Amino acid sequence: MRHGEPAVTGRLLGHADVAATPAGMAACRAAARAIGGAAIVSSDLSRAAACAAAAGEALALPVRVDPRWRELDFGAWDGCTAADLDPADRDRFWQDPDAYPPPGGERWSALVARAADALGDLGDGTLVVTHAGAMRAALAAACGLDARQVWAFDLPYAAVLTLTLWREDGRLSAQVTGLRR
Q1: Sign of the dihedral through C-alpha 160, 59, 28, 67
Q2: Residue 2 belongs to some domain of the structure
Q3: Which residues of the chain have pLDDT under 50?
Q4: Quick check: helix, strand or coil at residue 90?
């Protein structure tokens, strides 16, 4: 599940620790009630952790925090709007986020590796409360999608993406089995 609406929107938040709004937490609580779960794991950033706590209250489950589920680190771009960035740098990043990471930020492949590692530790029925970038990185890692293909998924705040995961020849694989907005 993507975290609920943060107090600041329209910016590259990355590792910026911005709180979720009460409405954002309520949306995650409602989504958790609708889908259920056996366990909850959350990014350590407050906009996700607070929404995970709300989901945990709804499902009477504890929350395990895992920093591998953090958003992409946008480095010097954290907190900026797209219009704040040099258009050429921004466009190079969107075309190839691995070759042209944000200044002082993280390469796309590093986020995909974190997500792949974190996916391997999940049990059946685990609800992960995280960020759109981390969700897209999980799709890339488990489904073999590239950085451009993962943008085909619309992931608004409190969206729930359901994956069925399995190991095949020692490699993690997945199938998208649901998307709730």
Answers
A1: negative
A2: no
A3: none
A4: helix
